[in-house]
């Protein structure tokens, strides 16, 4: 039987093939190939659309929203950002106008999520238009508005149809009005599966939206303003039916007295994804969900970021929780002011399922000159690598090593166990190599060139043991929310470097046809997603992002 040509395949098979194309520029190239491929590729090209608004380029939105644009009906997620322009006078008003134009001309009932990313008040009129025309939204966000929206929203016919489709609620309260808005969203959502509460209340007592922490947070005798407002429809908590959600994300929420609030309004046993970041009293929270009545039955993803106290209560509670729960696939731990790292036994308990491991801890506040990141000794690291053989992403601190040393024996002895991770795809080091024994700082370009040599050596070493290793990164991004490359994160990809950026020409030293020699090519923060999807560990906002690259300042005369 003769081999089939791509042009002879059915439309369904072509669609399946095109669905594996990740890079948007490649999808654009496919769109220009033929009319049929154009109709197929736009489904994936337009699924997630980010737009910069509030700039002179807003005039091009007319072409984007043209009825002849066959990609519009396939938009599922729309992210709006304020454009970075020098003159910001009147920019917000222009952005509101552009947002209204977008919502007016988009096809109805296509969006699943709409996100307003500027930290500015969103127009209540635009929100009413969004809820009126997009009834299939699965994600709703409680954000700051310029007016009370419910007078207009309650006039929308069959508004309950919108909330019947909602599965995820994101709460971003920074004042009383937003808390009330979030509480109303949660009350109307009957089939919620995911809840995010990220607070950002002002600490300045002179600010107009300042709220005393004693009023804001839970106490031993009564719930605080956050819980009593967001979960107001569930009061009294002693007799409420808890929410059966699968994902919970808490950020900057005081959990010291969570036993009488969160432990009653949420059924923790059904959680599959739990994230707790910068939450005071997290030791109490972990102790509470470690009880048999609250312990998650099948927790797959667990993320915690915490500043511990002098007694290391948070780390002790974390070790106890990890030893009780089972089946974690993704584990992220980021502690500061801690004297110890998590116990190795609490990590290897999940050896059969663990695929992503991110472990970082510092003995002081991140960014302080006297703070050092804690490092596992060679035997502990070896035990982790030997028993957790399914790991695909690894982010960890390493011992001091010299970037100019051709054979750093100390690092080789410590880091050799990672070669046992045959499924490893992304390797991330937060500790920067030094340029010792030289006492003079090198320029950034020189340092990155030396870092590239170091990454190439690691790729060479792992060719046989870790054939899937595609990404090696150093440092931590401090711009994870800005959609920009961070100067504090350097990422290298393995392979034929020009092909990574779309050019087929080979480079001397690149991987040959037999794959016997590796080459490390620097890539951007966003580009690496199209090279290796299993690199989500680089997207996290780790405390180590305050540790800068040890290079000479641009204006240093030396």
From TrEMBL:
Give the protein's recorded name: Uncharacterized protein
Organism lineage string: Eukaryota, Fungi, Dikarya, Ascomycota, Pezizomycotina
Superkingdom to which the source organism belongs:
Eukaryota
